[in-house]
Every structure is written in structure tokens, then in C-alpha cells.
Amino acid sequence: MQEKLIFHDISKHLTSSVQWASCVIGKCNSEDAYHSDLTAPNSIGNMALLPINTKFRGPAPPGDGSKDIIDEAIYFFKANIFFKNYEVKTPADRVLIYLTLYITECLKKLQRCTSKVQGAKDMQQLGIASFSIPGEAGFPLNAMYAKPANRQEADQMRAYLQQIRQETGTRLVEKVMDPATNKPSKWWMCFVKRKFMDKSLAARGM
């Protein structure tokens, strides 16, 4: 019985697919990566301006409670994190890429947390911390993202990214912090050192 429970626990936390196993041994095919199936009529730069289920203020349209881009990013993270190459198929994919990179930064912070309360505080601080947007020197994927056309669009883009950063951090605390131990789950911490697309949102030297 105990062996069955252990197996169930493992299968629940890991992506149970041949694709995941292939990535573990370094045979990821960029065509196998997960992509967003969300669409939006508007965009900021060349990122889709998608509805978000959140209480944080920002330019994103309010969600209707159905799956949003943050749900997708968290759900696909453990599979997509292994890919060094990723083909952008839609404007929503650029939001998915950004969130995947941001989740990694969140995990780096959460691995040092000794309680859920501390995790929530650290995610709040990270969400509003200074960060680079497309077109700025510190942004790691300027070749894939259009820089803002003007100051107004730059302000809107920064507000949009901050909004999704804040909501993502809030949701990750619930996912990552194990209620049984009040510490980060090992099933998430094992991905901390992985680098999606071999990129990082962190400033060099951090």
C-alpha cells in the first residue's frame, strides 16, 4: 500500500510522458514544447494582452475564472523548462515564455523560505521589484520581443508585466509551499537550476 502511495505521489508531481523523459536525457525537440492556446484581440508590443484572473491592478482585462495564461505557464513549466529552443507561434507564447522565466526566479526565492508566510512576503517583494522590459539593455530576449513604440506603451507594458508577476507569485506560493512541512516542495525545487532557453530574467551576477 505504501509503495502505491509513493508511486501516486511521484506521478502526480512529475510530467508523466515520454516527452518529459526525453528532455531529462537531453533529447528535447523544440516542436514538442507546449504552447499557449489563448488568443486576445489586443497586444502590447508583440505580446498578447490577455485576460487574467487577479485582484492586482493593471492593464490586463479581467478574467472570467476560466484558464488563463498564468495557469498555462505553471502547468507547462515542468515540461517546458527543459527546452533550450522554443518556437514562438502566437503573441500569447511570448507571455508564456516570460512567465516561464519568471517562475524560475520565483523558485530561486522560494527555495530559501522557511514558511509559507515568508514565501508570500518574498513573492510580493519580487513582484514589484525593478525589472527590465523589452527594448531595455537588461531584457534577455530583445531579439524576440518588440520594444514599446512610445513612453505610454512602455508604461503600459511595465504595468502589464508587473501585474502578471504579482499574480504568478501569489499562485506559486500555494503550489510550491508544502502544507505538510510548511517548506518548499522538493518536486518544485528540483527545477531551480534549470534555465529555459538558456536565459534568465535575473541581472548578471545575481
TrEMBL record:
Keywords: Actin-binding, Cell projection, Cytoplasm, Cytoskeleton, Nucleus. Its main location: other. GO terms for biological process: Arp2/3 complex-mediated actin nucleation; regulation of actin filament polymerization. SUPFAM superfamilies: Arp2/3 complex 21 kDa subunit ARPC3. GO terms for molecular function: actin binding. The keyword Nucleus applies. It is found in: Cell projection; Cytoplasm, Cytoskeleton; Nucleus. InterPro entries: ARPC3, ARPC3_sf. GO terms for cellular component: Arp2/3 protein complex; cell projection; nucleus. Functions as component of the Arp2/3 complex which is involved in regulation of actin polymerization and together with an activating nucleation-promoting factor (NPF) mediates the formation of branched actin networks. Belongs to the ARPC3 family. Component of the Arp2/3 complex. This is Actin-related protein 2/3 complex subunit 3.
